[in-house]
User: Fold this.
Amino acid sequence: MTLTSVAMRNAFGEALLALAPEHPEMVVLDADVATSTRTAGFGKKHPGRFFNVGVAEANMVDIAAGLATCGLRPVVSTFAVFLTLKAADQVRNIICYSNLPVILGGNYAGLSDSYDGASHQSILDVSIMRAMPNMAVIVPADSIELRQALELALQRSGPTYIRICRNATPVLFEDAPPLQFGRIRKVQDGNDVTIAVCGVPTSMAIEAAQRLARRGVSVDLLEVSTIKPIDSGAVIASARKTGKVLTVEEHTIKGGLGSAVAETLAAFAPAVMRFIGIHDTFTESGDYMALLYKYGISADHIEAEALSLAGGGAK
Amino acid sequence: MATLAAETRLDVQAVLREKNRKKKAAMLQYLAQEFRIVVLDILHDKGTGHWGGAASAAELLVALYFDVMDVRPDDPAWPDRDRLVISKGHSSCMLYTVLASRGYFGCEELATFRQLNSRLQGHPCMRKTPGVEMSTGSLGHGMSVALGMALAARLLKKTYWSYVLIGDGDLNEGQTWEGIMAAAKFKPERMVALVDYNKVQLDGPSDEIMPMDPLPEKFRAFNWNVAPVCYNGHDAVEVLDSMDWIKKQSEWPVAVIYNTHKGRGVSFMEDTAYWHGSVVDDLTYAKARPELLTKLSELEQDL
Assistant:
């Protein structure tokens, strides 16, 4: 199966332009990476509603807070690694404590800024954002979900973090029902092992599930686009059915999707679990897909881990 | 334990209505001193809170809420209200006292300061306290937030004013300077930074901890419209003068630097880092309160 590929960042820039007329209260802020994150198009079309604050992420987030208190709907855009680390105090003490409807677009997330290396690769943004009270966290799997996530976030009365990939990735859900906030997407029903995946690795999990089917392993495949609040009902139901859960994310395994699933299951439906993601290490420069592969994120890795899990859970 | 006599002896509506400048200044000066006594009572009663930065900001807060700002305490979310962001959030006790006296909530609530289930948190929380425009406490946020509010006024074609009150600690924070740079870029109308420049921080004199001089020149170098003089932030006449100057400006953003004294009003608590946040114990209270009362009696003669 050959899928069209579209970069989420391009979809982000196009969605901002498309949503601008029906959301006159929407304003966009960027920190000198508007060309990269694709907010520049919005800035050109709506200069009065666009603020390039220079390389000053903390300032940007608090300006957005001030705008939000006056009824505007700011969308803050920069590289995820800088947004969630350099402006963590602003996100916590201003945006989240005051529960302001600010949308944080964490661009170039995961390993997608692949050639720039570990300094630019964002592998703990979901952990940080998930730990903030009042913050919702959405990790779209493709450009279609990215647009839908932005639309949903604009309807919310509190802050939303949206994770955005830099590179072209397969379009998976063009003809599928739209992303629902706080709900998983059941990609495939199965009985032997649960795979819970978010973001770019979703296409890898779909491929792995197809290969596993050929090997007689039936996968219950959940695409968990809302990491917070997590769809605990669906996760628990799947774990109760299979008893074995593999989580897959382009993120450290400390605090991301895997942790969110484990926290949910530990209380209500303990299951044998495995975690695919970055294992407590810094990453490096390289081709995006090769980089993901080196750090254990690929259809091959998912297939092998799920097979091992389905075969009894012991390695 | 002292009774918290939080309600001012002045008629608040009369203060607000007063047009005679001299009389107004005398009233504001009196209110600020009264509020210092209320704050001291609360800090002593609760055994927690910050005296130094609260006392330092008394006249500025009183002038803003009882003369300068167009606000509606019975409708705190009125969209056209003037905004004030208290970036030096540790002056919360003075802010709450001013807000209560202005009518945002009952003065009896001041007795709940920093206690469980209170709307009056240790540092201001906009989701709990009516009249608080932004949750602060972590230093360095106010400049950026006020800039956002001022930019919103421009976008929404409103004419409200966006003030930010900042202190020495705020000026240590890099983000404040990011905000100063960005404000000078966007030049939002009616954005005003008021510096409560008391020159003492938590750990010691600012000259030892992080020197800020020459402060007006720094703002000017960042392309701000800075008041030609640094006003005495404890003299109500001078504070009103500064506000008059602000209202005449048309170049934005505007900064006014006020020379103030940390812990103003109690001789042995002034200009010392010790009284940034130390507990006002019984002995201290017994020595401090009469000083404040003596001054209050003097100010009463001017009314």
The interface with chain A takes residues 79, 85, 125-127, 133-138, 140-141, 144-153, 155-156, 162, 174-175, 178-179, 181-182, 185-186 of chain B (CB under 8 Å).
